[in-house]
Structure prediction request, 843 residues.
Amino acid sequence: MSTDSSDLPEEVAQRVRNVRVEDEMEQSYIDYAMSVIAGRALPDVRDGLKPVHRRILYAMHRSGITSGASHRKSSNIVGDTMGDFHPHGDQSIYDALARMAQDFSMRYPLIDGQGNFGSVDGDPPAAMRYTEARMAPIAEELLADIDMDTVDWQSNYDDRLQEPEVLPSAFPNLLVNGSSGIAVGMSTNIPPHNLGEVIDATVELIENPDATVEDLMEHVKGPDFPTGANIVGRNAVHAAYKTGRGRVRVRAEFEIEERDGESDRIVITELPYQTNKARMIEKIADSVNEGSIEGIRDLRDESDRDGIRVVVELKSNAMTEVVKNQLIESYLEKTFGVINLALVDGEPKVLSLTETLRHYLDHRKEVVRRRSQYELDEKEDRAHILEGRLTALENADDVVDIIQDAEDRDEAKTELRAAYDFSEEQVDHIVRMQLGSLTSMEVAEIEDEYGEVQARIERLEEILASESELLAVIKEELLEVRDEYADERRTSFIENTNEVTREDLIPEEDVVVVVTEQDYVKRMPVAQFDAQNRGGKGIIGGDIKEGDRVSKVFRANTHDYLLCFTNQGQVYRLKTYEIPEMSRTARGKSAVNLLDLDDAEEITAVVNTDDFEDGEYLTMATRNGMVNRTEASEFDNIFSTGIIAAKLEDGDELVDVQVTDGTTDLVIATRNGMAIRFDESEVTATGRRTKGVNGVKLRGGDAVAGMVTATDDDERSLLTVTERGYGKRTPLDEYGTQSRYGYGLTDIKTEDRNGSVTSVKAVAPDDHLVIMSEDGQIMRIRAADISEFGRNTMGVTVMELEGDDGVASVDVIPATTEEESAASDEESTETSEEPTGTDEPAE
Prediction:
């Protein structure tokens, strides 16, 4: 419903404006954003305080709760601050007050607290009615000279009182205590620093206005956190100081205690800034219980009022360096993201170290200039009074006579002004003079005071007239603050020497990775499995949860980067060693702890990225026979949440992925025993998120089982294994090249005895195979033990299965040692039935 302004009374119609809703919303949101930015979330570059902190300190100053006064209830301070200056809720004010009292949050606490103000374990402060506070001595340096017209003032929220827009700030508090906050569309995160270093850098800038970041870093070594710890490397610090942004690695301080006859232990004595100690210990314990960190026997918190002490007891057989680096990687090292964002003239700006100190110096010059002018005016007024009194004392007899002869004070003032040209202020003081001031001692004191005042006036005029003298005063006052409050640096530096990492300490070994349909995953060393003869049952390879079945088994090296493709066309990146190593009888760990899998999403193919070379492709086959070829380079950057590898039609699933180079043939096998071979070039290379092209025609109910690559001179065989444990090898050259999207040729008979095709692999005689059943049986055999037969045959028993168990997956272990090659050359005796069938092409 709209209202025509012409229908409104004239005085109302004059106030009505027609505006577009989007314009009003945009402007209102900008106003809100700037209010949050300038009024609540970001510190001012001049005093390093947000409004709430500034108002708390000024309210305490106004109430006389200084460092020399007794402590006052925090609720009283919060009430004064909220009622007079900051009407935004008592809890937010108390939180800000409590943080200023925490010696683990502030490098130089501004509040001297009495009571429980929280702990490094994340314990909250006690209620404000129980705690007491007063200003810390260093906080008074922020407010020094505030009553000498050194800063501008503004009305409080209800116009009853005046509050300072900024504090005089006798030291660069923004850098000294740091700040953090989130505004609308921006955030700030400024680390704390050592007071002495920051003041020395400020003095350097006074003496050398053209000083560079490198010059200032001769004094400011880097952040100095209240909790100590170590900064790893200096390059990130230099980048943060130069650009205003950077990522500084902070590592806990610890030592490894080697004890004769006993296991080692790691003792942690300092934590990275803003680390919750109790939560860190809890997470370490969880990792030990889950098996992601091995070798820890006991974990104790022995911290007390003297400092932090967390003891990690190791097992006698633990690799100390491995455990140490696992702890560093996960819990003992944090990245502090430096964003040196502050308000400059009311506008948010990202500042370098040099810019930050220059803005502070500009502020101090203004403060000292205004203070000097204020004091000069006072001294000149005092000198004027003293001049009048001295004149009166020189003519004491005459002045006394004039006063005695006058009828009243006003007449006396008039006569004195006429006789000696006194001003109104001078004559007021003269008529109030006592007779005792006419003594010679009193006269001498006035003359001495007048001389001191004149000397001070000359000094103040000198300061106001000379920039160098003004800076000299600032320098002197900064050095006084440094001498009074500076302390030793707490945070040390350790060089980033590319030390041994957790990955480096994990031995390189081939492992078998087992994945179930419900996405439980684990790895086991290949060396655990000795080669068996064909037709065996294998050994237990996993304790499969009821209702779950093995879906995939593959070989990898512990240091390989793996691309894990899922049935839904997503791909994730994973380091093999991140998969927990477990015993043969263990169930495994849920893959959702490693990969961000959705419900019903299963890993169906794994590709080793170490195999990639320039110009290669990832060629993907789906259950419904589609083939997609994408350049491998498109999979270089994969998010933790995965990326889309291929677009799938409704009801289709990704089945297999192979690395190709553009010159190979593709052999696609189906579950009903068909196989088609065609040139890879028939599949046009496209980007991710595409459906691809038809690769093979499928008769009703058939589906793609797998895909391999082949070349013209390929001496390998196509290994085909069926779900009921039968299989065969057939030379790849028996599969003639056709055009894609045909039915292909019969590969293996899939009658009742064999069941459907489960897996196809291209193998050489000296390769080894790892075969896993759905119920968790696993066996390793030599590829040469499976005899070669032609196409369209039944095959032989590969693995003996019990009940309704079936073959889940097969993977190839290339023979890389002389021992395996020699073993694969031994002739094996076939004990199963002879193959039967014909060699007729399918329709």
